[in-house]
Amino acid sequence: MTDRQSPSAEELNAHRGALAERMGIEILEATTDRIVARMPVEGNTQPYGLLHGGASVVLAETLGSIGSAVHAHSLGKIAVGLDINATHHRAARSGWVTGTAIPVTLGGSVACYEVTITDDEGRRTCTSRITCILRDLPPGA
Question: Residue 36 falls within a domain, yes or no?
Fold first, then answer.
């Protein structure tokens, strides 16, 4: 393991990517052991006015990818998404949802995170698992 410094939440928000920015995802905390972000329900709903399940998956993939990237960075590698799944437990109609990603496994070639998403009352709305493969840095990176 190298002593590469992890990026701060502020740095990650500044480089979160167009989709996360468009969806209003805000990184609140980011370490290899825990990544937390929130996303507004408004603007991310399906026609019935409920939070779109795909929006929950975008939040989960964002969190798991960040955690995997922080871990990969510590190894001098990059992380690339391999698999994601999600179970939607209840609807969110307003306010914010908060996602928390915790590592399931952090290896030399694979990183896996479980992501729980809760509403403003702390009720679980979605559970997701994301697995990323860790690859060597491409030439010139």
Answer: yes
